Automatic annotation (TrEMBL):
UniProt pathway: Amino-acid biosynthesis; L-tryptophan biosynthesis; L-tryptophan from chorismate: step 3/5
Superkingdom assignment: Bacteria
Protein name stated in the entry: N-(5'-phosphoribosyl)anthranilate isomerase
N-(5'phosphoribosyl) anthranilate isomerase (PRAI) domain residues: 5-194
Catalysed reactions, as listed in the record: N-(5-phospho-beta-D-ribosyl)anthranilate = 1-(2-carboxyphenylamino)-1-deoxy-D-ribulose 5-phosphate
Keywords: Amino-acid biosynthesis, Aromatic amino acid biosynthesis, Isomerase, Tryptophan biosynthesis
Leading EC class: isomerase
Family recorded in the similarity comment: Belongs to the TrpF family.
Gene Ontology terms for molecular function: phosphoribosylanthranilate isomerase activity
Species the sequence originates in: Cloacibacillus porcorum
GO annotation (BP), single: L-tryptophan biosynthetic process
UniProt-listed Pfam families: PRAI
Gene, per the UniProt record: trpF
EC numbers, comma separated: 5.3.1.24
């Protein structure tokens, strides 16, 4: 069954929405001030404490120090870290030394070389994306036949999910903009997106 991640939760009611529709993962964008979905580590703690224990909390980071990422993993605030910056193999090796948490490395896929780099990642999973929370799709032809389990992200929502699953067979789909209305999470869109994945699976 294809896993589902709903990313970019910022408010207690967003957590209530995912608790209601139960995706497999949810994401908090932590310490990324340029993001409108940014939350502080303390806010992430409060939101994660409200989360259904059956949903895996993921921290989304951009070039955060390994010690700060490991602290949130080792405290159990998050169970996985999604790395969305320029983190390289040495960064991941050091992070692995500090924590046993699951690591997801995000790649912006704009060329075949990007997909090749992603395939070599030392992380547990890779996430193929157009950017980070942009609501835009990348050229899916670049992910056809991708050789390891991956999260598919970028411009996904209830309307294009079955096409994505049919073509690319990802391990998981990750949605943020596509389950928002006027910049905030929309429970009707979350319900529709989760149902679309479950229906297909
Ligand atoms: O959401 C953000 O603002 C963000 C900022 C910086 C790095 C990552 C960010 N988001 C990651 C995600 O929300 C998802 O992994 C993915 O990019 C979803 O994108 P989309 O559904 O296209 O909004």
């Amino acid at each position: 069954m294809t896993r589902i991640k709903i990313c970019g939760l910022t408010r207690p009611c967003d957590v209530d929405y995912v608790n209601r529709y139960v995706p497999d993962y949810c994401g908090f964008v932590i310490n990324v001030p340029r993001s409108r979905r940014n939350v502080t580590p303390q806010r992430a703690r409060e939101l994660a404490a409200r989360l259904n224990p059956g949903i895996v909390p993921v921290g989304v980071f951009v070039d955060e120090s390994q010690s700060a990422v490991a602290r949130l993993l080792n405290e159990g605030v998050i169970a996985a870290a999604q790395l969305h910056g320029a983190e390289d193999a040495s960064y991941i090796k050091e992070l692995r030394r500090l924590t046993a948490g699951t690591l997801i490395q995000a790649f912006r896929v704009a060329s075949p070389a990007d997909a090749e780099r992603a395939a070599e990642s030392l992380a547990d999973y890779v996430l193929l994306d157009s950017g980070g929370g942009t609501g835009e799709r990348f050229d899916w032809r670049l992910a056809e036949g991708f050789k390891r389990p991956f999260f598919l992200a970028g411009g996904l929502g209830a309307e294009n999910i079955s096409d994505a699953l049919e073509r690319l067979r990802p391990f998981a789909v990750d949605m943020s903009s596509g389950v928002e209305t006027e910049g905030v999470k929309d429970p009707v869109k979350i319900e529709a997106a989760v149902a679309a994945v479950r229906r297909y699976s």
